Amino acid sequence: MNNDSNKSVEQCNSIAADRVQGSFDEDLVTCSICHMILWKPVACKTCENSFCSDCINQWQQKQPNKCPFTCHYEERKCIGAILKVLSRLQINCCYMQNGCSVAVPYEGLEKHEQQCDYQFKKCEGCQRELLLKDLAQHQELCDQIDLKCSTCETLFKRKDMKNHKEVQCLKQQLQQQKNQVQELKLEFKQEIQQLKETMEQKLKNQQDTIDQLHVKNEEMQEECLNVIKKQIQLHMMQETFDSIYSNTLKIEEHGLVVVLIDKREHSEVRGRNSYSSGINCIKFQIEKMLNNEWISFGVLSQSTPMASTSFSSPSFYGWGQCTTQTFLNGSNQNGYAGYDGDIKENDLIELIINCETNNIKLINHRSTKRYEIPIDASKCPFPWKLSVNLVNIDDRVRIVR
Ligand SMILES: [Zn+2]
Ligand SMILES: [Zn+2]
Ligand SMILES: [Zn+2]
Ligand SMILES: [Zn+2]
Ligand SMILES: [Zn+2]
Q1: pLDDT of residue 9
Q2: Per-chain residues with Cβ under 5 A from ion ligand 1
Q3: 139 lies in a domain?
Q4: Ligand 4 ion: residues within 5 Å (CB)
Q5: What distance in Å separates the CA atoms of residue 234 and residue 181, rounded to the nearest whole number?
Q6: How do residues 364-394 score in pLDDT, each as one tens digit?
Q7: Are residues 57 and 91 in the same domain?
């Protein structure tokens, strides 16, 4: 055995043989390392010698896999005969010198010693060592013990209780109230700040709304003004017949009526207005049309010269009453867009000249039929003119207001 390593073994739970009551086989249950009664023993598989588990663990840390008896060490359970002897031992409590007089069976020793009333414990207040059995009573009276005030919840030593109740506690309460007031002030300040921000935001929103309404109002005023302007313009733009190709035609009633008087031949009459913008509406009634034989109407470019057969003039777009003639740039495309030529004497015709989307519309109030022709402004440059063509004597057209 190595004496040096033996000395270094910690004898934590060491039980000297003289603590055991009665006679027993001391050699059988003595640890070969610490020479005390075996504690939580294990054995060497090779030589079957037993050791306290703490003792052999510490030994193994220094000499791994070596048994104190020089053989190869491998752990096994302690042999049953030894455990049996150990279990029969009655052992004096380690706190016997403090006054504990009980002898405890080997198995119950650890638990007893953990709870034994005769062990020393430190007082939490004065830090003096006292027997566990006296500690509770001592701490009830020890003037170094910390107490918690039920009023202000601060800790003070028992010896300072009088001072605390009479002075410190009041101070403490005052301080706590001060802190509370401070917290409330802060909270109040934050609330005020929030309120202020909310109000400012609301005010700003209202101002925005007012600004928007102001803008809208101005827009509406301008829109109204435009409508009024357009109405004035429309009034001024009211169409009349203005010029004729030949004296076969006669303009009557200050331009409201055109009539063919002389002989049967095609002749053109134009309106006074020039159309370059907006949507313009002209209504006319075919008061007389012999045998429902012929009329043509539409628009053409102002620069196009007057002609007898104005419907075939370049730039003319419009409709004719002879089968289903539809003219695009002076060229006839029969039945264009489904046009059926259903135009008769006494019909009230509405011609809508749209200079914004470049087209003309025909609405026949009797048949309620509608037709539309797109105008290629490169072939029919602005401004446009109303162009009507008559052929038979007494045929007569009236602009209706
Ligand atoms: Zn031992
Ligand atoms: Zn061994
Ligand atoms: Zn005890
Ligand atoms: Zn104390
Ligand atoms: Zn207090």
Answers
A1: 29
A2: 31, 33-34, 52, 55
A3: yes
A4: 123, 125-126, 142
A5: 78
A6: 999 999 999 999 999 999 999 999 999 999 9
A7: yes
Claim to verify: residue 261 and residue 393 sit in the same structural domain: yes
Could you tell me the distance, in angstroms and rounded to a whole number, from the CA of residue 30 to the centre of ligand 2? 15
Q: How confident is the model at residue 226 (pLDDT cuts 50, 70, 90)?
A: confident
Kindly tell me if the per-residue pLDDT of 237 is higher than 90: no
CA quadruple 164, 165, 171, 176: dihedral sign: positive
Q: Answer yes or no: do 146 and 263 share one domain.
A: no
Is the same domain home to 51 and 142? Answer: no
Same domain membership, residue 126 and residue 51: no
Strand (E) positions, 144-190?
146-148, 155-157
Q: Which ligand is located closest to the Cα atom of residue 99? A: 3
Give me the number of domains the chain comprises.
3
> Ligand 3 centroid to 39 CA: how many Å?
18
pLDDT in tens, 306-348: 999 999 999 999 999 878 999 999 999 999 999 999 999 999 9
Residues 78-105 pLDDT 10s: 999 999 999 999 999 999 989 999 999 9
Domain boundary among 87, 114, 141: 114
Of 51, 93, 99, whose CA–CA distance to 75 is shortest?
A: 51
Looking at the structure, do residues 133 and 104 belong to the same domain, yes or no?
A: no
Q: Specify the pLDDT at position 323.
A: 84
Same domain assignment for residues 94 and 150: no
Q: What is the CATH number of the domain that holds 261?
A: 2.60.120.920
Q: Which of the ligands is closest to the CA of residue 39? A: 1
Residues 133 and 48 in one domain: no
Cα 136 to averaged position of ligand 4 atoms, centre (Å): 10
What CATH number is associated with residue 54? 3.30.40.10
DSSP string of 219-284, one letter each residue? HHHHHHHHHHHHHHHHHHT---EEEESSTTEEEEGGGTEEEE-SSS--EEEEES--B-SSEEEEEE
ipTM score for this prediction: 0.81
Cβ(138)–Cβ(123) below 8 Å? yes
Residue 212 alpha carbon to ligand 3 centre in Å: 93
Counting ligands in written order, the one closest to the CA of 121 is 4
Ligand nearest to the CA of 41: 1
Domain span including residue 135: 119-158
Contact 134, 123 (CB under 8 A): no
Does 178 map to a domain?
Answer: no
